[in-house]
Amino acid sequence: MAVWNLGSINSDIVYFVPHIVAPGETLPSTGRQVFLGGKGANMSVAIARAGGTARHIGAVGHGAGWTVERLTEYGVDTRAIRRIDADPAEAVIAVAADGENSIILHQGANIEIPMDLVANALSEAQVGDWVVTQNETNAQLEALELGKRMGLNIAYAAAPFSADAVAKVLPLLDFLILNEIEMQQLRDALGKEPEELGVESVIVTMGGKGALLVEDGKRTQFDALPVTPVDTTGAGDTFTGYVLAGLDRGMPIGQAIGQATRAAALMVTRKGTADVIPDLAEVQEMRL
User: Fold this and answer.
1) Is 5 annotated in some ligand binding site?
2) Of the candidates 57, 101, 147, 219, which lies 20 to 30 Å from 14 by C-alpha distance?
3) pLDDT tens, position by position, for the chain (288 residues)?
């Protein structure tokens, strides 16, 4: 089985700062690093490191070939990533001393992914595979519609959040994951609770308060693990990737969430994005 991920690929330029910059403020950084990132790339790496088969679908622009090489090194199948005539996708990330972050995103090649690339990649998928996307690329709706027609399991990570984008794909979904702020925005837009969305499995992540699973009209709370965060960037993507890898490998969803909770807890103790996502052995050996 495999998880087909139509996802963004970024160069993450991370600046470490004493606090998140205020309007009009000039703030010297205390350090700078460049990582592989993008919600899509993060999820693909997390899927691979969780023991799943990650098949990434995407595009990269000028000078971003190193990101594809890095994904390959981390065990992601990159044959459906195309190099195109476009700007590279970049994220400028400020990480504060308390672990909070702010992000400026230049979408570049991520929103110029050719639809023929998506269709050709998914033509290799098998019934029972998963297809997932996020709101950082073009062709989301088309990819999920194609996946549905092919009998694939359909997942959506609703970030960066747009109620319109979620509403368009909602009828196709078997799995939806979003954070509690995004769930409130969706509730405001649609007037529906998670149980009323028509999606088999909905996960609402709540940071330090854990995660909520809504399935078959039942709510199940999963507590977060007590850790001291140094950088929350990529923790949600790590969680999502681990859950999807677990489901693709046949795990019950509760077990997959438990494993993902441990992975996300370990992730927030590290500085960086895709390059520092923990592997399955580290997660299993984690001392609580």
Assistant:
1) no
2) 57
3) 999 999 999 998 989 999 999 999 999 999 999 999 999 999 999 999 999 999 999 999 999 999 999 999 999 999 999 999 999 999 898 989 887 888 898 999 999 999 999 999 999 999 999 999 999 999 999 999 999 999 999 999 999 999 999 999 999 999 999 999 999 999 999 999 999 999 999 999 998 899 999 999 899 999 999 998 888 888 999 999 999 999 999 999 999 999 999 999 999 999 888 899 999 999 998 876
CB atoms closer than 10 angstroms to residue 113 = 26
Supply φ then ψ for residue 94, to 5 degrees.
-105, 125
Strands 175-179 and 77-83: unpaired
Asked whether residue 11 is marked as a ligand-binding residue, the answer is yes
Alpha-carbon distance of 270 to 267, in angstroms, equals 6
Domain extents in the chain: 3-19+30-285
By the 10 Å C-beta count (0-12 exposed, 13-18 middle, 19+ buried), 217 is classed as exposed
Contacts with 137 (C-beta within 8 Å, 6 or more apart), sequence order: 6, 7, 8, 40, 58, 110, 111, 113
Active site residues: 237
| Homologous superfamily of 3-19+30-285 | Ribokinase (3.40.1190.20)
Beta carbons within 8 Å of 142's beta carbon, 6+ residues apart: 115, 118
Tell me which residue of 190, 189, 193, 197 sits closest to 172, measured CA to CA.
197
Q: Is 149 annotated as a binding residue?
A: no
Q: What would the DSSP string read from start to end of 224-252?
A: PP----S--TTHHHHHHHHHHHHHHTT--
The single-letter DSSP state of residue 278 is P
42 assigned ligand-binding residue: yes
209 is an annotated ligand-binding site residue: yes
Reported as type and span, the H/E element at residue 168 is: helix 163-169
